[in-house]
Amino acid sequence: MAGKVFFSVTMSLDGFMAPEEVPYEDVFSPAKQDDPAVRRWMSKWSELQSWVFPLRWFRENLKLGEGGEEGVDNDFVRQTFERTGASVMGKRMFDAGELSWPEDAPFHTPVFVVTHTKREPWQRPGGTTFHFVNDGIESALAQARKAAGDRDVRIAGGAETIQQYLDAGLLDELSVTLSPVLFGSGIRLFDRVDAERVALKQIRSAASNRVTHLTYSVNKR
Amino acid sequence: MAGKVFFSVTMSLDGFMAPEEVPYEDVFSPAKQDDPAVRRWMSKWSELQSWVFPLRWFRENLKLGEGGEEGVDNDFVRQTFERTGASVMGKRMFDAGELSWPEDAPFHTPVFVVTHTKREPWQRPGGTTFHFVNDGIESALAQARKAAGDRDVRIAGGAETIQQYLDAGLLDELSVTLSPVLFGSGIRLFDRVDAERVALKQIRSAASNRVTHLTYSVNKR
Fold first, then answer.
1. I need a labelling partner for A93 at 20 to 30 A (CA). Which of A76, B34, B52, B158 fits?
2. What share of chain B is helix, strand, coil (3-state, %, to 5)?
3. Are B139 and B172 in contact (CB under 8 A)?
């Protein structure tokens, strides 16, 4: 039985899933660490994601050591990981991740990158293999579904890739973690959404003392 | 002991608290009911607020008759009403409401309208009196605090008035009810917010099977 196609991202209360873009090479460049734009990006991103850092699952997955918090937030990240049989992502997210992920990239499943770049599959230690799909989002999704078997397919990001899948009516479910932060500017999760074609129904709502995780089923109107 | 200054609004998942403005006289004009812009406004507004309509408190407050649902959503609207000793609103919200509220306007407290228009206090049956404040948001708030006594002051709306109080650092608390709807366009709740000056902390999260009510304490950074 096929799994669901979903995304799960953290969102500021005013609707942003990431700060305004800075060149990702700068974010990971030692020479650029004092660049005000880089520092602002890191500061905003860290605040948005701050709920993740203390969690046990996060510490384990990035091999930061023993311990870490358990509870609603930890259950949520763990379940999101465990339900995912394959991921799909856009090229920019891959390019930034290529610089930042550890060698054993944190997916531990096949990952399908939607891109025009031709590249052979890139296998990493720990079970992640990146596949580069040149013939569009539906092809990437079909390959991801096959790889995922009866588990779910996660559209990992970025915002533009998520919006493409949403607009194409290819999502079954979406989760947003509402982080207690206002961004003012940045990358809007639901930018350019064709709202008249999408119907949502809240199917889950789980809160810790920091954040709230909202899950919606997605249907066409 | 002084109460809190707060707002509580329903927000689409993509951050809108109302559809794009149409002239409010059109919304309440029988001649304009077939106007596509008016129909679209009513359709979007009704969908955003649909969680309220079945509630017992709503039916009682608008004298729609016996019955209505109880539970998390009903508790939330009832508590929001009961905590409020006085409200503050902008002129456009007042102008629209003047056409749409029943004779015994649904506030049942003093309401302070921030406006340049000079007008004597307008007392309605049922305990609502509208006061027209010409010397700005701080004056309106001071008068509202005095009227509210130890109860809270609600900044009722619209979005622009809420944003003024948020930017001035005059809010203690904010609640957003996340409605399962995407708008695509409209009046953004957090438009033009100066995010760097506002710090939020989630203090309450309550979910029904329809919507989730998130409450944050508001502090200056």
1. A76
2. 35, 30, 40
3. no
Which ipTM was obtained for this model?
0.94
DSSP E strands, B109-186: 110-114, 122-123, 129-133, 152-157, 173-179
pLDDT digits (tens, 9 = 90+) for B32-78: 888 888 899 999 999 999 999 999 999 988 888 888 999 999 999 99
- Shortest alpha-carbon distance between residue A19 and chain B (Å): 12
- Nearest by CB to A178, which of B194, B211, B214? B214
Minimal CA separation from A74 to chain B, in Å: 17
Is residue B218 exposed (0-12), middle (13-18) or buried (19+ Cβ within 10 Å)? buried
Q: Is B14 an interface residue toward A (CB < 8 Å)?
A: yes
List the beta bridge partners of residue B129.
Answer: B110, B123
- What's the CA gap between B221 and A129, in Å, rounded? 43
- Closest C-alpha among B202, B194, B206 to residue B218: B202
CB contacts of B216 in chain A (<8 Å) are 13, 180
Q: Return residues 60-99 of A near B (CB < 8 Å).
A: none
Inter-chain contacts counted by CB atoms under 8 A, chains A and B: 85
Q: Give the separation between CA B205 and CA B176, rounded to whole angstroms.
A: 10
What is the DSSP track for A53-120? TTBHHHHHHTT--S--B-SHHHHHHHHHHHHEEEEEEEHHHHHHHHHHS-SS-TT-SEEEEE-S----
**Cβ contact A189–B216 (<8 Å):** no
Q: Which residue of B has its CA nearest to A217?
A: B180
pTM for the whole thing? 0.95
b/e code B142-156 from CB counts within 10 Å (16+ = b): ebbbebbeebbbbbb
Contacts of A183 in chain B (CB under 8 A): 195
The token duo for A71 is: 């509870």
Tell me, yes or no, if B15 comes closer than 8 A to chain A by beta carbon.
yes
User: Consecutive 10-residue runs of chain A (221 residues): their mean pLDDT?
Assistant: 93 97 81 86 95 93 87 97 98 92 92 97 96 98 98 97 96 98 97 92 98 97 87
Q: Which helix (H) or strand (E) holds A160?
A: helix A159-167
Neighbours of A221 (CB within 10 A): 9
Q: Phi-psi bin for B61: left (phi > 0), alpha (psi -120 to 50), beta?
A: alpha
